[in-house]
Amino acid sequence: MDDATSYLTAVKKAFHDEPAKYVELIKLLNDLSARRVDAASVIARVDELMKDHQNLLLGFSVFLSANMSFIRKLKARYQGVGSHVVDSVLQILRLCRVGNKSKSEAYQEVVELVQGHEDLVMELSEIFSGLTDPSGSTSTSDTQIANDIGRLSLP
């Protein structure tokens, strides 16, 4: 699984008859992102939730690293004097998450802020890939998944 969107789509499909498991996964990831739980606890619970779905367990490790890594790198790169960049990026992502900014607009604004840091631009592209179709619109399920991803990207 190459990105967070496809991972969450696969989880939703795998647990279509058990939606509570998908909801619990999203809650766990949000709690991890907000630092209410530690990664080891989340990994243990996800391992339990997906014990019969090895492909989803493998995708989980890829999923976590792609989304959490961007924010960690951003904070490390722009600590101190550049901390306003981190604050701006997080604000843009929040506006996008609540629907006050389009995915396309948010992506462009963040790319401008991290200009010259191609590794961050590439990671951002991975996070945003698949959130919109070529016309720029999102379907209902894509919108829900995009909101789930948006919550993960915030501290």
UniProtKB/TrEMBL annotation:
Region Disordered: start-end pairs: 132-155
GO cellular component, one term: histone deacetylase complex
GO biological process: negative regulation of transcription by RNA polymerase II
Keyword Repressor: yes
UniProt protein name: Paired amphipathic helix
Matches recorded under InterPro entries: PAH, Sin3-like
GO MF term set: transcription corepressor activity
